[in-house]
Design brief:
CATH topology of the largest domain: Dipeptide-binding Protein, domain 3
Number of helices: 15
Largest sheet: 11 strands, mixed
Number of domains: 2
Strand content: 15-25%
Shape: globular
Number of strands: 19
Oligomer: single chain
């Protein structure tokens, strides 16, 4: 995949101008930091892969936390079910599943699987893992609001939910529900006890050493049930500094690098960078409950004033996709199901296209003297940069814009309380189940828990409820896109761009996964050739 947009002099100057306005300077000493933090691993010449990761573990690699995604990307912990590119459930440690009734599913397990400690995968062990996760003091995010029980029945596992749930197989694909050996869990069964993944997974690589927030070491598992790993092992180093990650790839300190910053792209051979579309959309949420944007015509005027293409070129230097809706290229079916096509929904060139969304208000004006407050956060620096340009675009339409930019932890409560007329957010549109309904319900239903636009539209509520009740497949996808059209027609949210991430791969590396969901990275097929 090589769809990168060349960085032009005009683009670079534009971005530098914005950074100057924000007082942002270049990082110093990055190369030295890189050398210090990535030199622990051995070279790829011995068949090992040196991996520089963006973030260190936050919970000691507890597989019931977000750290589970690291275990998944290292192919050391596996789940009962996997997802294909379309989000369909495919076999993992379970080879098949059937729906017994509205609330119960039967899963047939793969035979001949052993854990890294030599013990066998059994129905009893799987049921115990799921039971522990469901009863954990802080249950995995995928089980929020879900009452789940599991029991062994012969060689099969029965999974039961408190209410009918068509997404049970997709839920079981979450890395936070990985199946581990009994030795990983606290001996006393304490619901808040530590869960240790070291040496307890089933994947093609054994996690041997977890060195806190510094590094991790994995070795090939010779007893793996599937294809043996081509690489002999993985040496992981956590390199939070983006400039240092870029230098690690450029200088050969790492064969595989997560999230190379856009700012580093011009310093690295383009052949080593691969763009991965992410299920994440930068969206401007407009407060529909009070203030100027309670008027649909003012919302339409703001939407028409925005130019996402300019944001993509200046803030992301071409490494993003202009939004065609809430859901982007990371969900390949979204564009296929979107009845109004792939036209841009916002910006000077997209104003007419927005009218193709059923019921959309296409024209609007701003009353003289209208002032709004725009909020965003500093945790994602590109949002603060974008806000500068968005303010200019909105003010050109006649709005007076005040900004409030803080750390996310300090601004979230105010955003949820409706303190802003507009809020700029980078939002994950596909959560752990691989399905966007949960995100859409959270953000745009009347009872949504993350409703920054405070939309209360019965038609949207009905559409989301209808989509959520359907089995995964074409009908559900069509219903999701119908709900998306209603949200966009309301003007409650203006999707601006879909993010991409730059994955760095050395010239000798092959077989690395480029996964929008960030579940897979190194697999049995990943190899470094000298």
């Amino acid at each position: 995949m090589d769809t990168s947009t060349p960085l032009t002099a005009a683009t670079a100057l534009s971005r530098r101008h914005v950074l100057a306005l924000l007082g942002v300077g270049a990082a110093a000493g990055a190369l030295a930091a890189c050398s210090d933090s990535t030199s622990a691993g051995s070279s790829g010449a011995d068949g090992r892969i040196r991996l520089a990761m963006l973030q260190p573990p936050r919970s000691g690699l507890n597989p019931l936390s977000d750290d589970a995604f690291k275990l998944s990307r290292w192919s050391t912990a596996e789940t009962l079910v996997n997802l294909d590119a379309e989000g369909n459930a495919v076999e993992g440690l379970a080879t098949s599943w059937t729906r017994v009734d509205d609330r119960t599913w039967r899963l047939t397990l793969r035979q001949g699987v052993t854990f890294h400690d030599g013990t066998e995968l059994t129905a009893e062990r799987v049921a115990a893992c799921l039971t522990f996760a469901a009863g954990y003091s802080t249950p995995p995010r995928i089980l929020d609001g879900v009452e789940l029980t599991a029991a062994a029945e012969g060689a099969d596992v029965l999974v039961t939910t408190g209410a009918a749930d068509p997404l049970v197989p997709q839920r079981l694909s979450s890395p936070q529900l990985a199946i581990l050996a009994a030795g990983a869990y606290p001996a006393d069964g304490a619901a808040d006890g530590p869960v240790d993944p070291v040496g307890h997974g089933t994947g093609p690589f054994v996690l041997k050493v977890a060195n806190g927030t510094a590094s991790a070491t994995l070795e090939r598992y010779e007893g793996y049930w599937g294809d043996k790993a081509a690489a002999t092992g993985i040496d992981v180093t956590y390199v939070p500094d983006g400039t240092a990650r870029g230098a690690a790839l450029r200088t050969g300190e790492a064969e595989l690098v997560e999230a190379v910053p856009v700012s580093q792209a011009a310093t690295i051979d383009a052949a080593l960078l691969h763009e991965v579309p992410m299920p994440r959309t930068a969206t401007l949420y407009l407060n529909t409950a009070k203030g100027p944007f309670a008027d649909p015509a003012v919302r339409a005027a703001a939407r028409n004033a925005l130019d996402p293409a300019a944001l993509v070129e200046t803030m992301y230097e071409g490494y993003a996709d202009v939004a065609a809706g809430l859901l982007g290229p990371a969900l390949p079916w979204a564009a296929q199901e979107r009845s109004w096509g792939d036209e841009v929904l916002a910006g000077a060139d997209g104003a007419a296209a927005a009218g193709k969304v059923p019921g959309a208000v296409t024209d609007g004006s701003v009353p003289a003297g209208t002032t709004i407050t725009l909020g965003t956060y500093t945790d994602r620096p590109e949002l603060a940069e974008m806000a500068v340009v968005i303010v200019q675009q909105l003010e050109a339409a006649g709005l007076t814009v005040k900004t409030d930019v803080r750390e996310y932890s300090l601004i979230e409560a105010d955003a949820l309380a409706g303190s802003f007329d507009a809020f700029l957010l980078s939002r994950a549109t596909v959560l752990d189940s691989g399905d966007p309904v949960a995100y859409m319900v959270s953000d745009f239903s009347s009872a949504g828990s993350f409703s920054l636009s405070f939309l209360a539209d019965p038609a949207v509520d009905e559409a989301l409820a209808a989509a959520g009740a359907l089995e995964p497949g074409p009908e559900r996808r069509a219903a999701i896109m119908s709900a998306e059209a209603l949200v966009l027609a309301s003007g409650a949210a203006v999707p601006l761009l879909h993010e991409r991430v730059l994955q760095g791969e050395a010239a000798g590396l092959s077989g690395a996964e480029r996964d929008p969901r960030e579940r897979a990275l190194i697999t049995s097929a990943t190899v470094v050739k000298g």
